[in-house]
Design a protein that fits this description.
Layout: E1 2-6, H1 15-21, E2 25-36, E3 39-50, E4 53-63, E5 66-68, H2 71-83, E6 89-98, H3 103-129
Antiparallel strand pairs: 1-6, 2-3, 3-4, 4-5, 4-6
């Protein structure tokens, strides 16, 4: 899921709100440090459950080129940029996979997707900026 917005602070919120509203139980919530393409990134890790099925989800927020796992940090950046009259774009990025019997396999799937996502994102940046 990639939720984007241009100056729309209200469109961003922690995914836990939607999960709880959809009758999921939050079993774990913690920031973790992951490395994709040699870049360390802190993401928020959730383990959620519904009707006996568990899911591992990672999410983070962006504002322009800045990235954070913390919703309040993202909101502060959006407000600061608005006060300074800077055009601002932000996103909520959430990826998830069934947890299954092997939590390490779940982690590897999410990390593989994140690595691929970051590589594609870097290629788009180069194409856009001509760098």
């Amino acid at each position: 899921l990639l939720e984007g917005g241009f100056g729309k602070r209200a469109s961003f919120h922690p995914p836990e709100l939607c999960y709880v509203g959809s009758d999921f139980d939050i079993l774990a919530r913690e920031p973790i440090l992951v490395s994709a393409n040699g870049q360390a990134r802190r993401v928020m890790r959730l383990v959620i459950a519904q009707r006996g099925q568990q899911v591992e989800a990672w999410y983070w927020f962006t504002v322009d080129d800045r990235t954070t796992h913390n919703y309040y940090q993202q909101q502060l950046w959006l407000i600061t940029d608005a006060v300074l009259r800077r055009p601002t774009e932000g996103t909520l990025v959430r990826i998830s996979t069934p947890l299954g019997d092997d939590p390490d396999a779940s982690h590897r799937r999410l990390l593989a997707f994140l690595t691929s996502f970051e590589s594609a994102n870097a290629a788009r940046q180069v194409a856009r900026d001509g760098v």
